[in-house]
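New to this. Explain the following:
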Amino acid sequence: MVKILVLNGHPAKKSFCGALAQGYTDSARTHGHEVRVQQVSALRFDSDFGVSSFRDAKPWEPDLEAFWQNLEWCDHLVLTHPLWWGGMPAKLKGLIDRVFLPGLAFQYVKGKPLPEKLLKGRTSEVLVSSDTPGWFFRWVYGAGIKKQTKMQILDFCGLKMKRYSWFSTIRGSSEAEREKMLERARKLGAKPSS
């Protein structure tokens, strides 16, 4: 059994990302895994870090405390989000800015160029919905958000990224095409972190 935290990073209450997160969750539970789900749309917090140094970080709101407790609890983080302007939605990025802090998610060590990964021992995967075709994302855009998410957020803190799954194109897709994407998300949920 794997303890999984599914974070739906879409800021709207209803979205295809939410459907992907739900399909993954349902399948993981069916296969005997313990799953907690958090919706960025339901979290109430100031997404603006708003200060110039980590030591001046503002206190967490209760929803950030709850997210952190779930992050510490999990073995595997599943992040779903849409591709907006080549990146993740602002509220999701704000959650990362506010919670993934030194002393909690990573720690700078004097004399070493890279910090200690304080969330090591955990894995992660990312499910992204997009109107951009996968080949265009990779070959024309250079997969920038994938590199950022893997190397500068998840792996940086020790949440070793196992999979990055692209679901596109959403705009103009038929119900049958969307169902195939949802079935793919369910298959991923059946075998988390593999």
Observations:
- The chain has one domain: 3-190.
- The beta strands are 3-8, 34-39, 76-82, 106-107, 116-117, 122-130, 159-168.
- The chain is about 40% helix and 20% strand.
- The domain at 3-190 is CATH 3.40.50.360 (Rossmann fold).
